[in-house]
Write a structure and sequence with these properties.
The protein is of the alpha/beta class. Helix content is 42%, strand content 18%. The protein has a single domain, classed as TIM Barrel (Alpha-Beta Barrel), CATH 3.20.20. The strands form 2 sheets. A 7-stranded parallel sheet has the order 2-3-4-5-6-7-8. Strands 1-9 form a two-stranded parallel sheet. The longest helix is centred in the last third of the chain and has 22 residues. The chain is globular, with a radius of gyration of 17 Å. It binds pyridoxal-5'-phosphate. The site of pyridoxal-5'-phosphate has 14 residues, from helix 10.
C-alpha cells in the first residue's frame, strides 16, 4: 500500500465519520491524487485556478473544491465543474460566480472565507464585512450560488492555544450567522477549518470539513 493510501486510512480512523476530508493536493502530482482515490478519497482541494483546471481535465471523476484566492476574471474557468468554492471574500466575487454558474445552468456551493488569523496577508472577509454582505440582501437574489457556510485559516503558529481560540471564534460566528441570517435553511451547515497541523483541534471546535494536505501527500 502506498504511503498516501496509508495516511488517508489513518486519518479516517482518527476522525468522526461525519467530518468531510478535502485532501488539499496543490503541488502534488496527478499520479499521487490517483493513489488517494484508490484509498477511496474522491474530494480534493486546490488553491490555484490554473493548477485546478489542469488537474480536473486529467481527473474529471474526482470532486474539486477551490480553497485559494479567486480573482473575479478567473471564475469562468472553474464554473463548469467546481463542486465548491471555499474562498468567497467579496460580494463582487459572489455575483460573478452566480453569473458564470447561470451560463452552465448550475448552482455552485460556496463558503464565505472569514479572516481569523493575526497575519495581515491572509485573504478573507472580516466578521463585520461578512455581516454587511449578509444583511445587504444580495445573497437572497442570487439564484445560482448557495452559501453553505464558512471557511477560515488559523494563524501560522505553533501556539495551539491561540489556534484553538481562533477556531472557536469562527465556530461561534458561524452559529450566530446561521441563527440570524439563515433561519430554517438547512444548507448553511458547513464549517471548513483545520489543516495538517491543527485538524484535530478544528474538529474539537466544530469543523465539518477539514483541509489536510501535507499530512496526506508527504512522507513523514
Ligand atoms: C495549503 C492549504 C491547505 C493544506 O495545508 P497543509 O498544511 O499542507 O495541510 C489547506 N487549506 C488551504 C486554504 C491551503 O492553502
Amino acid at each position: 500500500m502506498s504511503h498516501i493510501s496509508q495516511s488517508i486510512k489513518e486519518l479516517r480512523s482518527k476522525i468522526p465519520s461525519n467530518v468531510k476530508i478535502v485532501a488539499v493536493s496543490k503541488t502534488h502530482s496527478v499520479d499521487h491524487i490517483r493513489e488517494a482515490m484508490e484509498a477511496g478519497q474522491m474530494l480534493f482541494g486546490e488553491s490555484k485556478v490554473q493548477e485546478l483546471t489542469l488537474k480536473q481535465k486529467q481527473i474529471p471523476d474526482a470532486q474539486w473544491h477551490l480553497v485559494g484566492h479567486l480573482q473575479t476574471n478567473k471564475v469562468k474557468y472553474v464554473a463548469p465543474f467546481v463542486s465548491m468554492i471555499q474562498s468567497i471574500d467579496s460580494v463582487r466575487l459572489l455575483e460573478e460566480v452566480d453569473k458564470q454558474a447561470s451560463r452552465y445552468k448550475r448552482v455552485i456551493d460556496c463558503l464565505l472565507q472569514i479572516h481569523i488569523a493575526r497575519e495581515e496577508t491572509k485573504f478573507g472577509l472580516g466578521m463585520g464585512e461578512a455581516i454587511d454582505l449578509l444583511s445587504s440582501g444580495v445573497i437572497q437574489k442570487l439564484q445560482h450560488v448557495r452559501v453553505c457556510g464558512l471557511m477560515g485559516m488559523a494563524s501560522f503558529t505553533s501556539d495551539m492555544k491561540s489556534v484553538r481560540a481562533e477556531f472557536r471564534s469562527l465556530a461561534e460566528f458561524f452559529v450566530r450567522l446561521r441563527r440570524e441570517y439563515f433561519s430554517g435553511a438547512a444548507s448553511f451547515c458547513e464549517l471548513s477549518m483545520g489543516m495538517s497541523a491543527d485538524y484535530m483541534i478544528a474538529i474539537e471546535e466544530g469543523a465539518t470539513i477539514i483541509r489536510p494536505g501535507s499530512t496526506i501527500f508527504e512522507k513523514n
